[in-house]
Design goal:
Layout: H1 3-7, E1 9-13, H2 23-28, E2 47-50, E3 54-59, E4 62-67, E5 72-76, H3 78-86, E6 91-92, H4 93-104, H5 111-123, E7 127-130
Antiparallel strand pairs: 1-5, 2-6, 2-7, 3-4, 4-5
Protein backbone atom coordinates (compact mmCIF):
# COMPACT_ATOMS: atom_id res chain seq x y z
CA UNK A 1 0.00 0.00 0.00
CA UNK A 2 1.37 3.41 -0.92
CA UNK A 3 1.33 6.51 1.22
CA UNK A 4 -1.08 8.04 -1.30
CA UNK A 5 -3.54 5.20 -0.58
CA UNK A 6 -3.18 5.90 3.13
CA UNK A 7 -3.75 9.67 2.79
CA UNK A 8 -7.28 9.63 1.39
CA UNK A 9 -8.14 13.31 1.18
CA UNK A 10 -10.74 15.28 -0.75
CA UNK A 11 -11.75 18.90 -1.12
CA UNK A 12 -15.09 20.64 -1.47
CA UNK A 13 -16.31 24.15 -2.12
CA UNK A 14 -18.45 25.41 0.73
CA UNK A 15 -21.93 26.77 -0.01
CA UNK A 16 -23.49 29.85 1.51
CA UNK A 17 -24.80 27.63 4.30
CA UNK A 18 -21.79 26.35 6.20
CA UNK A 19 -21.32 22.62 5.92
CA UNK A 20 -23.75 21.95 3.08
CA UNK A 21 -22.46 20.82 -0.26
CA UNK A 22 -24.19 19.41 -3.32
CA UNK A 23 -22.77 17.15 -6.03
CA UNK A 24 -22.56 19.95 -8.61
CA UNK A 25 -20.40 22.03 -6.28
CA UNK A 26 -18.16 19.09 -5.42
CA UNK A 27 -17.53 18.32 -9.07
CA UNK A 28 -16.64 21.98 -9.74
CA UNK A 29 -13.73 21.99 -7.28
CA UNK A 30 -10.37 21.68 -8.99
CA UNK A 31 -8.84 18.65 -7.27
CA UNK A 32 -5.63 18.99 -9.30
CA UNK A 33 -4.95 22.59 -8.31
CA UNK A 34 -1.28 22.94 -7.48
CA UNK A 35 1.15 25.49 -6.20
CA UNK A 36 1.46 28.74 -8.12
CA UNK A 37 3.64 28.78 -11.21
CA UNK A 38 7.08 30.05 -10.30
CA UNK A 39 6.98 28.62 -6.78
CA UNK A 40 10.26 26.89 -5.99
CA UNK A 41 10.17 23.09 -6.10
CA UNK A 42 9.64 21.28 -2.81
CA UNK A 43 12.71 19.66 -1.31
CA UNK A 44 13.37 17.83 1.97
CA UNK A 45 14.57 21.20 3.35
CA UNK A 46 11.31 22.99 2.48
CA UNK A 47 9.46 24.08 5.62
CA UNK A 48 5.69 23.65 5.78
CA UNK A 49 3.19 25.03 8.27
CA UNK A 50 -0.54 25.62 8.57
CA UNK A 51 -1.72 28.83 6.88
CA UNK A 52 -3.15 31.46 9.25
CA UNK A 53 -6.69 31.53 7.81
CA UNK A 54 -7.40 27.82 8.24
CA UNK A 55 -9.76 26.30 10.76
CA UNK A 56 -9.28 22.70 11.87
CA UNK A 57 -11.62 20.27 13.56
CA UNK A 58 -10.96 16.63 14.35
CA UNK A 59 -13.82 14.14 14.51
CA UNK A 60 -13.14 10.48 15.30
CA UNK A 61 -9.53 10.73 14.19
CA UNK A 62 -10.30 12.46 10.89
CA UNK A 63 -9.90 16.15 10.12
CA UNK A 64 -11.95 18.81 8.44
CA UNK A 65 -9.98 21.86 7.29
CA UNK A 66 -11.61 25.10 6.18
CA UNK A 67 -9.89 27.97 4.41
CA UNK A 68 -12.04 30.85 5.65
CA UNK A 69 -10.89 33.14 2.82
CA UNK A 70 -11.86 30.83 -0.05
CA UNK A 71 -14.55 28.64 1.46
CA UNK A 72 -12.66 25.52 0.39
CA UNK A 73 -12.77 22.72 2.90
CA UNK A 74 -10.82 19.49 2.97
CA UNK A 75 -11.44 16.17 4.63
CA UNK A 76 -8.43 14.15 5.76
CA UNK A 77 -8.42 10.56 6.96
CA UNK A 78 -6.41 9.45 10.01
CA UNK A 79 -3.05 9.45 8.22
CA UNK A 80 -3.71 12.85 6.67
CA UNK A 81 -4.85 14.14 10.07
CA UNK A 82 -1.62 12.91 11.64
CA UNK A 83 0.33 14.78 8.96
CA UNK A 84 -1.79 17.90 9.52
CA UNK A 85 -1.18 17.94 13.27
CA UNK A 86 2.56 17.77 12.56
CA UNK A 87 2.23 21.04 10.62
CA UNK A 88 1.10 23.13 13.61
CA UNK A 89 4.71 24.20 13.96
CA UNK A 90 6.93 24.70 10.94
CA UNK A 91 8.52 21.36 9.96
CA UNK A 92 10.70 20.37 7.04
CA UNK A 93 9.35 17.90 4.53
CA UNK A 94 12.37 15.71 5.23
CA UNK A 95 11.53 15.52 8.94
CA UNK A 96 7.87 14.89 8.12
CA UNK A 97 8.83 12.11 5.72
CA UNK A 98 11.01 10.49 8.40
CA UNK A 99 8.03 10.53 10.80
CA UNK A 100 5.80 8.86 8.22
CA UNK A 101 8.37 6.20 7.35
CA UNK A 102 8.71 5.37 11.05
CA UNK A 103 5.00 5.50 11.97
CA UNK A 104 3.52 3.76 8.94
CA UNK A 105 6.37 1.58 7.72
CA UNK A 106 6.23 3.56 4.48
CA UNK A 107 9.14 3.47 2.11
CA UNK A 108 11.25 6.61 1.64
CA UNK A 109 10.59 6.29 -2.11
CA UNK A 110 7.01 7.43 -1.47
CA UNK A 111 8.27 11.02 -1.29
CA UNK A 112 6.12 11.94 -4.31
CA UNK A 113 2.94 11.02 -2.40
CA UNK A 114 3.79 13.40 0.43
CA UNK A 115 4.79 16.14 -2.00
CA UNK A 116 1.51 15.69 -3.92
CA UNK A 117 -0.50 16.22 -0.73
CA UNK A 118 1.52 19.29 0.31
CA UNK A 119 1.23 20.82 -3.18
CA UNK A 120 -2.53 20.28 -3.14
CA UNK A 121 -2.86 21.80 0.34
CA UNK A 122 -0.63 24.71 -0.72
CA UNK A 123 -2.65 25.26 -3.89
CA UNK A 124 -5.83 25.48 -1.83
CA UNK A 125 -4.24 27.98 0.58
CA UNK A 126 -4.25 25.57 3.52
CA UNK A 127 -0.49 25.48 4.13
CA UNK A 128 2.44 27.81 3.60
CA UNK A 129 5.75 26.55 2.23
CA UNK A 130 9.13 28.18 2.73
CA UNK A 131 11.78 26.71 0.43
CA UNK A 132 14.55 28.23 2.58
CA UNK A 133 13.74 25.97 5.54
CA UNK A 134 12.02 26.25 8.92
CA UNK A 135 11.74 29.47 10.86
CA UNK A 136 14.22 29.80 13.69
CA UNK A 137 13.46 31.51 16.95
Amino acid sequence: MTLRDLLGYKSHQATSKFGECDEEEVSSVDHKKSAKPGDPPLTPDSAVKVAPDVLFSEVQGEAVLLNVKTGIYFGLNQVGTNIWTSLKESITLGALQEQLVEQYDASPEQWTDLVALIIDLQGQGLVEVDASGPETA
